[in-house]
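Friendly challenge for the regulars: who can give me the structure tokens for this chain first? No prize, just bragging rights.
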Amino acid sequence: MTSKKHLSTLVCASLFTLGLAACSDKSPESNSAAADGSATSNSATLDKIKQSGTIVLGYRDSSIPFSYIADNPNQPVGYAHDLQLKVVDAVKQKLNLPDLKIRYNLVTSQNRIPLVSNGTVDLECGSTTNNKERQQQVDFSTGFFEVGSRLLTAKDSGIKDFADLKGKKLVTTAGTTSERYIRQHEKELGIGEIISAKDHAESFLMLQNGRAAAFMMDDILLAGEKSKAKDPNNWVIVGTAPIHEIYGCMLRKGDTGFKQVVDDAIKATYSSGEINEMYKKWFLSPIPPKNINLNFAMTDQLKALISNPHDRDQ
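First reply, four minutes later:
Bragging rights claimed.
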């Protein structure tokens, strides 16, 4: 007659062979780690971070004042980057990894979504618009900014709105929602030519060099580029925004565990009121590299988003 212990062994072996289960002599209490920060169930990203001891942050090098390089070429700064570091603190606490390392990975408008999707970058917080098309490929955090797309142009250009672009050259940044919008309306507006630059800095350089009469982008990013000019007073932001968008941090699609950590960290920054000091630091005070004050007051729309956080595209 087969003993109970021997029968149990045979059953476990059969289940293991079928790939249906794993058996253990350990008691349920031995698996209690799942209740503390050492567990990363439902999150491939947290598992990856736990195993490597490193979180990979995607950053932009010229999205002033959200994520950009100022004085140190190896250290991004900015409003979105500060929020990103709040998430890092939350991950440290969640995984009980006080010495969690940060590795930075530069992203562009063109490659940011693929690098998040394929696992190269764990979290990207810069100036990425949350929209339905992108939601098919990645997930977005709670929104952290609301913008409108407008025009940056020389003060004496005569351009006051989009209707004044007829027959003129316009530059915008490749891979952005501004580029997509303006190409859809190019013939309607009678634009002479649309130039797609690799990043915001190159777009503004083309404007300054006279290769384009205006630069279309999110209003706050235009204010950031304007601040870098030799004489910012020579440039003006004009036009009625045809599109309004919400920025969010990008993470891999379907990772609900990691998204919860990200969202909770951002919401905690809102509810504590710390977001107001962060906003003042980057939008209402002199910022590097030229110590220019953007003087970009918080809009009613952003105040509403902070009061009632959400991850919708509108």
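The first helix runs from residue 4 to 18. The longest strand covers residues 145-154. Your move, everyone else.
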